[in-house]
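Morning F.,

Quick status update on the modeling queue. The single chain you submitted on Monday has been processed. Sequence for confirmation:
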Amino acid sequence: MDILMVLDHEFPPDVRVENEAISLIRAGHRVHLACHTRNERPQKDFYRGMIIHRIPVSTLLYKSSVAALTVPLYFKFWEQFLDKIVRNNDIKAIHIHDLPLAQVGKTLKNRYYLKLVVDLHENWPALLRISSHTKTIPGRLLSPRFLWERYERRVLRHADSIIVVVEESRERLIGAGVDSSKISVVSNTLNQENFRLPDKFPDTEYYTLFYAGGITYHRGLHIVIEAISLVKDKIPDIRFRIAGSGRFLQPLKNLVKKMNIGAHVEFTGQLSLEEVADNLAQADVALIPHLKTSHTDSTIPHKLFQYMFANKPIIASNCIPLERIVSETNSGIIFKSGSPGDLADKLLALYEKKITLLPARRWVEEKYNWDVDAAKLVSIYRKFQASLISEYNHGTK
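Structure tokens below.
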């Protein structure tokens, strides 16, 4: 089956998209990937078996995506681009990554009798509630959150399959009236094939905390900075290594300077997956300090499973999916989101070895790994193939 995946940003990189596409290719499908480029990448390309279709996008048009529900110029741009790909290839299914372009997928589904998959990486309406641009007056006018909530409920009715990353997200959609039979959980678990840990150990001169990921306010990194200021006298060798980039980077650096703890905090910048593995191997503790919101209560980060595979003690905030999995595996400690004092207490207890945790790699090897989730994804498309064959034999197509 020829599948058209649609991604509303640059590719590569995107770990989830890459894992899914390669799994489908290995299952015998041909995968096309449509994405935009703002970096003058080739418009036709090949990557790990995928056929890449790119379209240049101007800064103005890219920014207009915020207002897609009120001024549908961005939808029209994508519809014209994708229509050409569908017409020029034997596309049988369109796989939309994340909510915004689901409407375009619905339009093409109806026009060409395609199967439609909507792959929800995030709880999009909840993400907008915590996004800085929707808190401004123009943001509220151009991208009101209630419109995205209505949009989600409306457009998901037309999907043949809906993919979410965690059980809590599935429950949220069912509660909103979405047909449960359409929803599959294909999580952000670890692809062990692509994650290699070097033979390295923590630096004995430091007690190293490690975080890898985006640097935005809702990641809660400022809570860690405040907690370090509370424990630095009791843990004088503490070092917090932050890998990643994002719009909250400078405010975070300013906070470090204000609290005079520059000797205890290191910003590495954006790292490759190999560099993340290298830094993780040398860490004593791995952190996921996300602020608890309706968004973080219905998603799960890749890094959780990377940390578990590395057998690192995890300190995570009490977001529902994080607390569920960390508690199930006894792989870490949960602290109250947004509380530097509670985090400081948990850091000190772990440092003083008052808490015993179990190595979590076996959980990844046996349960929380990409092979398990890839099988669920492949099953969705196997059912599509059977349905298309049945429709063909009965002359309905």
